[in-house]
Amino acid sequence: MKLQFCITIFFVLSFSLSVFSQIKDPKMTEVWEPVVRKVDPGNINTAPSDATVLFDGKNLDAWQHFRGEPIGWKLEDGAMTVVKGKGNIYSKRKFGDCQLHLEFRIPNEVEGEGQDNGNSGVFLQEKYEVQVLGSHDSETYSNGQCGAIYKQYIPLVNASRPKMAWQTYDIIFKAPVFNEDGIRVSPGYLTVLHNGVLIQNHVQIQGTSEYIGMPKNIKHEKGAIVLQDHGNPVSYRNIWIREL
Length: 244
Ligand code: MG
Hints:
Layout: H1 2-21, E1 52-55, E2 63-64, E3 74-76, E4 79-81, E5 89-91, E6 98-105, E7 120-124, E8 128-132, E9 166-174, E10 177-178, E11 184-186, E12 189-194, E13 197-204, E14 226-227, E15 235-243
Antiparallel strand pairs: 1-15, 2-5, 3-4, 4-15, 5-14, 6-9, 6-15, 7-8, 7-14, 9-12, 10-11, 12-13
Bound molecules: magnesium ion.
């Protein structure tokens, strides 16, 4: 039986090798189908043609506060700015795996140093925070500075620009998957480019972003993109998203 098995394997391998060794025409390894769909990438200030624009500077229609109240943040000069105490804002649409682009600006007037220096944040699915903070000229704990996956991953480098300079985030998010029993069967992942510089390289999300305590993994469906009101007048503009 064992001998038969070995002989079978031998012939299968020999056949495979002979087939591959016969591929001498480069055209045999060209793949023409499917044809790749064209997307107009736009220019540096516009969204690609297949993106959903969440904020183009004209209105806040795509956003709401937690209980569906209209936005209390300030809309001015093509940007929206946190108004202290009005609360986080939520995209009306909910998303799973996605590519998210946005620009943010740390204000001159800040509450203080460290975590009070232009603090805001971008939450994927309302739970996983990419920190927004003025980290160009202010120190804080490394896993809480700008570009950190809050209290989970330190950014690879500090690519921050100074206060009042517009900065970009390009975030690629793979959502965690839960089975019907509520057990996480596949973790989530985040990749982040800050001002075009890779600062988070496909890191495995440990669970929810928690100020105190350990990350949690509780079953959830798609969720909103959330921008954080941390009491500082951080501004945002040019926000678009592509579902993956
Ligand atoms: Mg924050």
